[in-house]
Please model this.
Amino acid sequence: MTKPLRLEILICAPNGCADARVLLDALAGVDLADKTITILEFGPNCTQTNNSELPAEKVEHRHFEEFGDIGMRQQSFLTSQANWMAYLEDHALPDTDFFSELGAYLNQEFPADAMTFYSKNGTPNSVGSRAVYNWVWGESEVSLFPSKPAPVCSAFLVNREAAVAEINRRGGVLQKGELEMLIIPELIRQDQQSISHRIAVLHFEDVNFVTAIQAVASNGRVTGNLEKDLLPRKGWLKHMLRRYFLRSARIRKVGKYNFIDSISLEIMAISGFIGVLIGRYFGIGKAELELAHAHPVVKK
Model:
């Protein structure tokens, strides 16, 4: 396979581009010859923040009238002209060798049509951040390096043509949340030939424990509201119980956790489960706005 063309790096920054400042600084040293950067942000929050070392023609600030990562990813996927799309959150920093490893991955003979990234904990001293980190990233934790990271679909790479084919197979209309919850995991499951690379991002979300609980509950509420239309009603509750309460057990099997982190995992499970029930039966409410409170405040 030849070197991939038209790789679009999409940064989800609903709070505005100012929250992506650290990530933009990291991208200033990247060769952008075959890449572009698109910042996805809630329009009123845009401050036109950029890095002076980044070519202006390579960076687009795309404004949305709706607040929330999932809607932004849906709309940006539908309109992108890129061959490959790499989605990052504004608080997920690429490792120093992220793009060289990504290039090596895409240039292998049989790259997967989608992949998620390993994560490094950038806030080890914050219990709240560790709670979110361990729960959200789970088996993708970088020190464990499983053969393939479990789908964590806020940071992922996807081949647009393959994703469109999967969307068409499912009916031809990309629903909100379907890209992260159904398409990406299915493309990863289909891959049997690619060689896993240690492609990692740094997670630097520094929040207290109460905020962490609220964030996981809000995320669960968003998920529950979306999955009402994406998952069948039959067996749904059993599926949720397995997702939230067996997951913490699986996470503990692949890593050593102290007492506080172990308790935190269980609290995250309870918070997520309650959130998903509320989202399914009472709607999304202000969950996306509440989730944004867990994003780090970037100071410079």
About this structure: The radius of gyration is 18 Å.
